[in-house]
Sequence to fold (261 residues):
Amino acid sequence: MNRFENKVVLVTGGSRNTGLDLVERFAREGAKVWTCGSTAASTAKGAAALAARGVDGVRAMPCDIADPAQVDALFDAIAREDGRLDVLVNNAANQGIGQGGPLDVAPDAMLAVLRTNVVGGFRVTQEACRRFFAKQETRGCVVFLSSNTARRAIRNRTSYCASKGAINSLVRSLALDLGPLGIRVNCCAPGYINTERWEALDPAVAARRRANCPLGREASGADVAGVVAFLVSDDAANMTGEIVTVDGGCSCQHMPADCDG
Ligand SMILES: NC(=O)c1ccc[n+]([C@@H]2O[C@H](COP(=O)([O-])OP(=O)(O)OC[C@H]3O[C@@H](n4cnc5c(N)ncnc54)[C@H](OP(=O)(O)O)[C@@H]3O)[C@@H](O)[C@H]2O)c1
Fold:
């Protein structure tokens, strides 16, 4: 399928894990893809990983999305080289791992998570809309990566859960205000994804988690990328403000399997 031929796509956070799968999906479906990690080193590592997968032609430019000057520079480069943008995928995230319980979280630590996940994603979306989506004849569309933890919290991830809840509200608010401009804004909310962190789990913990997913497994990055690609495709032309969960059914259960019986 070449659904995204002649489209220009920006995927933030394409230096590792799910971001690489998102970039790969759009590139393989014909798009010109831009991506960024937060630093020059991580961005170069991501570009090398994509090249090793045979994904060529990706424009990888470092951009800390929490820094407005770096966001401006990224959009300057897109304007200079392509002069348009069709799709924005707000995938970059600060996981806020290791901040402790809610009584331990330092205000600056929480702000760092919100600055990237909420304000950073918003700022990138503003630039995409101001410079391209609202002006182009073919309007653009946006997908945010949220999480099923926005609705059902996980322990000791206060800042992260709060940021993902804010993203869900942000998506609805943006969809409402940008709909009249013809710009669609949706959200993909994964549960467990197979990443380097998943691979580092104790195998017994990974097995328990899988047993507690109704579908019996975590998502792959490709599973997530497939849903994101659908949300920005013409097949979803009448969808905006939606939060689509991709968690193997975890969120539909009241109790996990090992609590039943
Ligand atoms: N993994 C899961 O199980 C899971 C579950 C639910 C939802 N999600 C969501 O799905 C998305 C992808 O998850 P993931 O686990 O693949 O993410 P990840 O492994 O934590 O990677 C995060 C990406 O975001 C980039 N990033 C972080 N801060 C940034 C900043 N300030 N500016 C620019 N880039 C920045 C990282 O770049 P560097 O390499 O430079 O740090 C990296 O490329 C995230 O939005 C995440 O919250 C993940």
Remarks:
- The two ends are 46 Å apart (CA to CA).
